[in-house]
Design goal:
single chain, seven-stranded antiparallel beta sheet
Length: 252
């Protein structure tokens, strides 16, 4: 009987050891989302934009970007007379013919949001390290025969801006570490869901530039994680093409 209990104890210890080894192996294999995003930033070359002024055109307007370790300044110029400036410390300002004008708070929020949106997508994945961003790793999946890491992004209310309730998915290629697909849901203006496919990849001084095909699903009841499968089955509607042209450096 003593030998029986000894054998049982041995088997229990062995099973616990196997369980812990398998669990530890899984933990080691699952990427840390912070580390993965940092590697993607390097793969995109977005770690090289600090201290540079970049300009580009989007839908007949000129946009400018400056960022260093503590400051960013986003600028939108319309018809050479209206200049919208978004500063992370000083906030939003509008200038007409070089002179500042007073705006109602609601209009300032609207213009600030539209400027921020364009520059946000232009800087991906660098902005995924903003202080209000919360990252979660959701595993891998296959999209069009390639394997991708799935990152879920949500935002803290404090520092998350007017759109802190938005939710994003980023699909990062396991080989190149580039973001080839992304999706997001938003609540403003009645809410919506979008899926974007990157195309026209090119580099400017090692910085990866890419445009997007912008799609929407047939219903707002669709989950973000189901969008890649719908995309592969051509069940998403193409809404627009997001193209940034004439990208260049200013005084560099």
């Amino acid at each position: 009987m003593k030998d029986f209990y000894s054998n049982v104890n041995y088997l229990l210890i062995l099973l616990i050891g196997v369980f812990l080894a398998v669990t530890g192996c899984k933990d080691q294999q699952q990427p840390n989302p912070e580390t993965l995003v940092n590697k993607s930033i390097v793969a995109h070359g977005m770690d090289k934009i600090y201290g540079k002024q970049i300009r580009f055109k989007f839908r007949d307007r000129e946009y400018r970007l400056y960022r260093d370790s503590t400051t960013y300044v986003y600028t939108r110029i319309t018809d050479d007379s209206i200049e919208d400036v978004l500063h992370n410390v000083e906030g939003f300002s509008r200038f007409v013919n070089g002179k500042p004008i007073q705006l109602a708070d609601s209009m300032a929020v609207k213009y600030s949001s539209s400027v921020n949106s364009v520059l946000y997508f232009f800087q991906l994945p660098l902005v995924l390290n903003d202080s209000a961003v919360k990252k979660e790793y959701l595993g891998t999946r296959i999209i069009n025969d390639s394997e991708y890491h799935t990152i879920k992004i949500t935002f803290a209310q404090e520092g998350g801006g007017e759109d802190f309730e938005d939710e994003f998915r980023y699909w990062i290629h396991t080989g190149t570490l580039e973001i080839d697909y992304l999706a997001y849901s938003y609540l403003t203006d009645g809410g919506g869901i979008r899926f974007r496919e990157a195309f026209n990849k090119r580099r400017l001084a090692d910085i990866l530039l890419q445009d997007y095909r912008n799609y929407k699903p047939p219903s707002l009841e669709i989950s973000l994680d189901s969008l890649p499968a719908m995309f592969e089955k051509d069940k998403l509607e193409l809404l627009s093409i997001i193209e940034n042209t004439d990208v260049d450096f200013i005084n560099n």
